[in-house]
Design goal:
Chain lengths: 120, 161
């Protein structure tokens, strides 16, 4: 499977990659986007099976990326990995069709719990 | 105008503990040991601003050595492999994570800024019309680290300086 990691923080992308490996998902193909617009474009051009997206990013926020993908008829599995989490954000994510909402700081156990059912 | 803050020192301490457990000390062998010294020195700092339902700043400050150590822990590198860019990025991420967690406890309508990183002591920062309302101060492997919250005063009208 191909997984797109979208976060404007290089450090956080590295941590997400490392945590995916620790949780046993290191064999999947991992690609990265450094802002929301890039995430949107790469989701269309690279056809990942899963997108893990930060919320607050330059160019487009994560929720804008998800909404625009859905508006364009793209049904990719999509969820958020973010340091910000409010009930309103979770509601917006749910309404837009997000599969999960992981809050930073996160652990490998949390990744396993969320991704095992998705990635098998 | 800011509301009364609903994030207290214990909340802040809990967030900081989670950051240590998840990233800085996953083995649980090198926790942040409280000093309760709000005037402890720092050499670098990072901050995020929150505006809206609460207005103020979250500041992460430490010695250069503790910042390098944090970068090494975050990036799974040795301390001597860590570049200045790594240190900056990790300091920014630390402020962002704590700031995001603080925001989650505030009433709806708060906006979080992108982080600012300054490779100079926290004492060089000046946040106009603010007062420190809470903080966690400690030593990590003998090196100073602090996380503090600065609230803008209620009479500080948005846009007015």
């Amino acid at each position: 499977m191909k997984i797109l990691i979208a976060d404007d923080s290089r450090v956080m992308r590295q941590i997400v990659v490392r945590t995916l490996r620790q949780a046993g998902f290191g064999d999947h193909e991992l690609i990265e986007a450094a802002d929301g617009k890039q995430a949107f474009e790469m989701t269309k051009s690279e056809n990942p099976d899963l997108v893990l997206s930060d919320w607050n990013m330059p160019e487009m926020t994560g929720i804008e990326v998800l909404r625009q993908l859905r508006a364009a008829g793209n049904d990719v599995k999509f969820g958020f990995v973010t340091s910000e989490s409010t009930p309103e954000m979770k509601d917006q994510a749910d309404a837009a069709g997000a599969l999960f909402f992981i809050v930073k700081p996160f652990s490998a156990e949390r990744f396993d719990e969320v991704f095992a059912p998705i990635l098998g | 105008m800011s509301v009364e803050v609903e994030v207290n020192e214990n909340d802040l301490a809990e967030m900081v503990e989670q950051v240590w457990e998840s990233y800085l000390d996953p083995e649980g062998i090198s926790p942040l040991i409280p000093t309760y010294d709000e005037n402890q020195p720092s050499e670098v700092h990072s901050s995020v601003s929150i505006t809206g339902s609460w207005t103020g700043h979250i500041v992460y400050a430490s010695s250069t050595s503790a910042a390098r150590r944090a970068a090494a822990a975050f990036l799974a590198m040795e301390m001597d492999e860590v570049s200045e860019e790594d240190v900056s990025d990790v300091l920014g991420e630390l402020a962002n994570i704590v700031g995001g967690n603080v925001k989650a406890m505030l009433p709806p309508g708060a906006l979080l800024s992108l982080p600012q990183v300054v490779l100079a002591p926290e004492s060089t920062a000046r946040f106009p019309n603010t007062q420190r309302i809470s903080g966690v101060y400690g030593v990590w492997d003998g090196e100073p680290v602090s996380i503090s919250m600065w609230q803008s005063r209620g009479d500080n009208k948005e846009g007015a300086e």
